[in-house]
Amino acid sequence: MFATTCVDLFPFNSTTLPKDFFSDPIVLSELQVLHSKHGSWGPLGQQATGVDFDPVPCTQLSMEFFDRLYECGVLRADGAIKGCIPEYVEGLAINNELEKAMFMEDSDNHDVFSPDERSQLLFRLFMLLIKGGPLNQYEDNIGAYFDMTKLLYKDLVSVSKDPQTKSLFVNSSVVSINSVVSHADGKVHSGFFFLTTKPSLCVCMWVWVW
């Protein structure tokens, strides 16, 4: 999976993300994208004339969000992922009950998470790790997936405490970039981009791109 994944961090001081971000000279020269034509990494290069994106909610604060996977029987008490008869969904091999719950809408456990919960950044990171890539070596125990999901989430968002209620909340903003149209040739760069902003004590803010 990580052969087709890149994470970058940029200081940025614009409040009109994400279009200005993809027009910034430093971003254009430094942000690495996977070019489908020859399958290699290279800079975005050309200024964006259009950016299609959707906001991503990120209100979850705990990995207890996934405890219901134990309760519904997808995971055993020791974290082992329950197997199933192999199936295929749009070319994706489904080899266990976790993958069925994630990717098969007609599975018994697909509705364990509501559509709104599935839109959460925490869930989307988890689902991307479960899906993997062409060279992915899948795990039989959920531990590695939970550990990596937690690590990525902590890196991508920041948390603050409300001074009045003392409650914790995520103070990052996240958008999912669906496509970026380049200035010169009209080329559309697509795939999955998560653009997250993390407030900083300095004038600029930090922008994570995954």
List unreliable stretches of 5+ residues. 201-206
* Relative strand content: 25-35%
Helices and strands, in order, run as: EHEEEHEEHHHHEEEEE
Q: What is the straight-line distance between the termini? A: 13 Å
What is the overall shape?
A: globular
Structural class: alpha+beta
Nearest-integer average pLDDT = 79
- Strand order, sheet with most strands: 1-11-10-9-4
Helix content: 10-25%
Whole-angstrom Rg? 19 Å
Per DSSP, the total helix count is 6
Biggest sheet overview: 5 strands, antiparallel
**How many β-strands, per DSSP?**
11
What does this structure look like?
The radius of gyration is 19 Å and the shape is globular. Helix 5 (121-131) crosses helix 6. The protein is 22% helix and 31% strand. The chain has helices spanning 25-30, 68-71, 97-103, 115-118, 121-131, 143-156; strands spanning 8-12, 32-35, 40-43, 48-55, 83-89, 92-96, 159-161, 168-170, 173-182, 188-198, 205-209. The strands form four sheets. The protein has a five-stranded antiparallel β-sheet, with no helix packed on it. A two-stranded antiparallel ribbon has the order 2-3. The protein has 210 residues and is an alpha+beta fold. The protein has six helices and eleven strands. Mean pLDDT is 79; it is low at 201-206. Strand 10 (188-198) and strand 11 form a beta hairpin.
What is the structure about, briefly put?
α5 packs across α6. 22% of the residues lie in helices and 31% in strands.
Characteristic key phrases:
31% strand, 210 residues, two-stranded antiparallel ribbon, 5-stranded antiparallel β-sheet, alpha+beta
